[in-house]
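quick one: fe (ii) ion bound model?
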Amino acid sequence: MTRNPVRLAAVGDVHWHVERRRTFHHHFETIHEVADVLILPGDLTGSGLPEEARLFAEVLSEVRVPIVAVLGNHDMHTENTDEVVRILRGAGVHVLLGGGDGVTLRIGDVSVGLCGTKGFCGGFGARCLTPFGEHAIKTFIDETKTEAERIEYDLSRLQADLRVVVLHYSPVEDTVIGEPRELYPFLGSSLLCGPIDQLGADLVLHGHAHYGSENGMSDSGIPVRNVALPVLKRSYAIFEFSPEALMNNRIERRSA
Ligand SMILES: [Fe+2]
Ligand SMILES: [Fe+2]
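yep, here:
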């Protein structure tokens, strides 16, 4: 029997602001024709204003497939985070804040598990910031560690045929290449990738690095994709997974 592939659409950094509707041709109203889920990896709004969230929620109300999102730094700028989350959740969006809110969706015979959180900064590899010296430095990198712990908590509980991690900040250096090197420490952190490599996932999506690269990979070979709108230069990216391959994964996991 031939089954349809599971199709995920993803676009980050939409940065919806009050005037956006006139300029952004989002094609969200027809997304059900090409995808089973829409994933929004943060920076949904221009500056986290409730009005921006309301206008974007109006646009999202046209979408006929489940929507899963994380917040970005822009969504926190005006410190209306609770209100922004309330508005988006009120519109039916699964807003993932991490640490216990992963979701599992059923697409045909396949279970699709998604967990996520915003993530934070710190840099990559041997140059990743460490908690040494001033209290402010320790507080800064503690934020990243807490975000990594949220990923670990959710991923360790996510049982699904297809497991997807959604972040705003990048967990790998590959997908920030193209940005000025001076900005790398503020575009993501390898600390976010630790639990992903340890616990496994099929796909990691993020945004934030507007001038970065689309394709990357974790140390253990997990595909990482930067789906920031300015990187994609198209309305969204589509990721397809064959149910047969996912079923084989399921059998392998059971016998592992
Ligand atoms: Fe952004
Ligand atoms: Fe951002």
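Residues 6-255 form a domain with the Purple Acid Phosphatase; chain A, domain 2 fold (CATH 3.60.21.10).
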